[in-house]
Amino acid sequence: MSSDDIDKFIDTLASPKEMVQYYKKEMEQLQKEIESLEESVEADKQKLLEIPASVLEEIKSQIPSSNATGVEDDEKLQAIFKQLQVQTTFSKIAFTDTTVKVMKQSQNKTISSHHIQGNSFGLDFSADFEVTETKIPEGEAVPQILAGQETKATITKLKASVDEQVQMELNDIIQEIQKTCALEPFLNGYAQYAEWFRHRENTFIHFKKEYESAVMLPQGSTGALLQFSHPDNNGAVYIVSWSIPFNLTGRTEPSIDLHVKASAHMNQIDQRNILKSAPEEFQKMLTSLGVEKALDSIIQAVAT
Question: Rounded to two decimals, what is the model's pTM?
Fold first, then answer.
């Protein structure tokens, strides 16, 4: 506190009324500082979670209305933020926007339209789906998961979109997912796929840099093919196909295969059947060495 502030404070001692006014101004200033700090903290939360304001408003709207104090409401928001962080950590999906619209509503049934979008390992996705929520008749036998609930919800329509980088590779499974309205398998499978996609991309980039004159990426670094041969091209080309399919259960099972394309002359002089046995031997190397070491070993053997 400066000497001027001290003088002002002493002057207020002369009158109780002036003391009240002084403290009132101090409290107002302090309140403004608190509000400014709260806005700064809220902004940091949004930046950390990478969730736009529209999503935060949607979250707030889902908090049940009650006579709770502001502190209690803030605690609820804090709990939801923590749930979102945990969900992103374990599901490896970050939701960036969501909207819900009630289309039809009656005493026993509610039909709502939902839109969600987000990303996983930098690969965007979105899903639009309809949910039909119906009241469970009293006494009706229900699965254990619905025990104690008054309604059951079913996804009746689903349209899923994925990042343009992976549309071609995932086209078939996306069509199946939309036919069966399998939203949860889509989200689980896409997260696993995205993780493997980035791993494959980084691996291909690494070997292209390591063996620049021998390695080619016919579909680019985000594609599924890695091709290599001797720099002088001795008549044999080796192609690694690394696909990342996921099924309607939401499980991803990467498949890595080696194919050899050789000229007639190379096949003729290959008396030990090295070219023909290469794919099988490569599978053994994958099992014993892992992807990176297996690739490095076979590329090094061919290119040097």
Answer: 0.69
